[in-house]
Write a structure and sequence with these properties.
Layout lengths: L3 H10 L6 H27 L6 E10 L2 E10 L3 E8 L3 E6 L2 E4 L4 E3 L2 H18 L7 E8 L4 E4 L7 E2 L4 H11 L6 H13 L31 E4 L6 E4 L5 E3 H15 L7 H8 L6 H10 L1 E3 L6 E3 L1
Parallel strand pairs: 3-7, 4-8, 7-9
Antiparallel strand pairs: 1-2, 2-3, 4-5, 5-6, 10-11, 11-12, 13-14
Bound molecules: zinc ion (ZN).
Zinc ion binds next to loops.
């Protein structure tokens, strides 16, 4: 599932101008999400669903240190931790440091990052009194088919794109037993320790007054949409990709986006009319809101419960 943070970034992308730093962050998040989806698909293909207890995107804390686990698979004997990377292009290792070939720039060593997470997870489980007959096995997964790493040791826990299918098949063979009550409890415990990020420091600042308004295209998310449908004007047409959507659906989508971006603002006819931007009169907004939501209050102070 897409994180709340990534959803917000998607919504904001066409409505505020991102700084270079924010653009990079958004791109990194999107790549990471794509990589995790790809990995989940592979996992679903290789391991029977009933034998698979998977937790994605866990953010945990131990000794005041937060650590993120991309994908955790609980089996009867082992906790598998997968760190998924979407690196593309050629990299090399020199004196234990990792570099990107094209620029010779050093990058954060992903093996260290993975080992650090494993240690913290081990300590956290111990501290929580979780009986650890369970082994922890961490693997660093590179999912992009055009990734190459020079000077990597044969014994390192790295799975390269060319090894991924085989690795998954082997994993499927190992996971032949359904998780039992104990694993369910462990999964619940881990989920309960998950920290939802309190502040989205990487998300650009925005306000209703300054944000670019308009209905976004359901297909390409662009704001270049116009009303069509003859005199009734009951459809939204995207000038960017040609997608057509019924007005009612577009308005409901716009309300949903408005609520996500402005959870503290009330949904009123006038605010949604301003938010959508394309309608000459607020009548159509009023009709759609009345049809779909409960109205609270009277006259100009009324709002809808969404
Ligand atoms: Zn479009």
């Amino acid at each position: 599932m897409m994180s709340h943070e990534l959803t917000l970034m998607h919504l904001l992308n066409c409505r505020v101008s991102f700084t270079e730093k924010e653009k990079k962050y958004f791109w990194k998040m999107r790549k990471g999400f794509e990589g995790e989806c790809q990995f989940d698909e592979l996992l679903a293909k290789s391991v029977p669903n009933e034998n698979c207890l998977v937790l994605n995107d866990l953010l945990l804390e131990h000794n005041n240190t937060q650590f993120q686990l991309d994908s955790v698979l609980l089996s009867t004997s082992t906790i598998y931790v997968f760190e998924i990377k979407t690196f593309e292009g050629d990299y090399y290792i020199k004196n234990g440091e990792w570099f990107f070939c094209k620029t010779n720039n050093a990058i954060t060593n992903p093996l260290h990052q993975m080992q650090r997470s494993e240690t913290l997870l081990r300590q956290l489980l111990q501290q929580q009194g979780i009986n650890s007959n369970l082994q922890i096995q961490s693997n660093l997964i590179f999912i992009h088919p055009e990734f190459t790493l020079y000077n990597s040791s044969k014994d390192s826990p790295i799975i390269f794109p060319t090894q991924l299918n085989r690795f998954m098949k082997d994993l499927g063979k190992k996971l032949t037993v359904k998780p039992n009550q104990r694993h369910m409890q462990l999964a619940e415990k881990l989920k309960s320790m998950h920290i939802s990020r309190p502040s989205f420091e990487n998300i650009p600042k925005y306000s209703f007054e300054t944000i670019k308004k308009g209905i976004s295209c359901a297909s390409c998310r662009s704001l270049h949409v116009i009303l069509i449908g003859g005199t009734k004007m009951h459809q939204i047409f995207c000038n960017n990709c040609g997608h057509v959507e019924e007005v009612d659906e577009s308005i409901l989508r716009a309300v949903k986006e408005y609520k996500l971006l402005f959870p503290d603002r009330k949904v009123t006819t006038s605010s949604i009319w301003q938010w959508c931007g394309v309608f000459k009169s607020p009548k159509v907004i009023m009709r759609v809101l009345k049809k779909n939501f409960n109205k609270v209050g009277k006259n100009r102070y009324s709002y809808f419960v969404v």
